[in-house]
Design brief:
Length: about 230
């Protein structure tokens, strides 16, 4: 069942990319495994899925080490709100942090990365809808934030991530996806800093995100079923 769902999501990604004149290979599927049992994740790995995302460092700490033996190419992204005091644990577990949104966290991650002699890929979380209930850098403050991050030599700033405002109509997210892409392109023109990745779109709207330029889509329930069911 998991393999069939992954195949279906990949097919939908490919169709969305083709509709917008993009190469489907430009888009990575990140399988969101929050609350998903390791045995079910193993089914996804067997189906060829290697990129995964977790929302909570503590939960990930109980899963990731036990899953490492399944495949040497597993890649884990942290996609939840990261507290500064969990920076060390996150660095040990994850290959990329998608939710960098403040200088204090950047400083903690950079310090830990230096101590471990590694470079850490990060994405900047942008609060594209300026929703007071969501984390992220305000779009207007992105250039200044990038300037401040230049001091952290062990962080590899590779893109932007966003969570769009809630809506019952998935089509409402399209304008926010487009806004993030335009913000990325405008920032590149003004600062000379090109941010390759755009992590945007989830189970209910990932096809729209692909049409608007996503390079990473974060899909959970379309692969593993609704939260709280037999996958937990």
């Amino acid at each position: 069942m998991i393999a069939r769902r992954i195949e279906g999501v990949r097919s939908r990604i490919a169709c969305a990319a083709q509709r917008s004149g993009r190469n489907p290979d430009e888009v990575s599927l990140l399988a969101v495994t929050k609350t998903v049992r390791p045995g079910i994740i193993a089914e996804a790995v067997e189906a060829g899925q290697l990129l995964f995302g977790e929302n909570y460092a503590q939960e990930a700490g109980d899963k990731i080490p036990s899953l490492a033996r399944l495949h040497p190419g597993l890649i884990w992204h942290f996609i939840g709100h990261l507290q500064t005091n969990k920076a060390g644990l996150a660095l040990e577990l994850f290959d990329c942090i998608e939710t960098l949104d403040n200088v204090k966290l950047a400083e903690a991650l950079d310090r830990r990365a230096k101590a471990a002699d590694k470079r850490l890929p990060v994405l900047i979380q942008v609060n594209i809808g300026e929703d007071p209930g969501k984390s992220g850098v305000s779009p207007g403050l992105l250039p200044d934030f990038l300037t401040r991050l230049a001091d952290f030599s062990n962080l590899d700033i590779s893109g932007l991530m966003t969570i769009t405002p809630l809506s019952d109509n998935p089509e409402d997210a399209r304008c926010w996806f487009r806004s993030l892409r335009e913000l990325r392109d405008k920032t590149a023109r003004e600062t000379g800093i090109f941010l390759r990745d755009l992590s945007m779109g989830m189970s209910h709207d990932f096809e729209l995100a692909v049409e608007e330029g996503a390079t990473i889509v974060r899909v959970g329930s379309e692969i593993f079923g609704p939260r709280g069911h037999d996958h937990v």
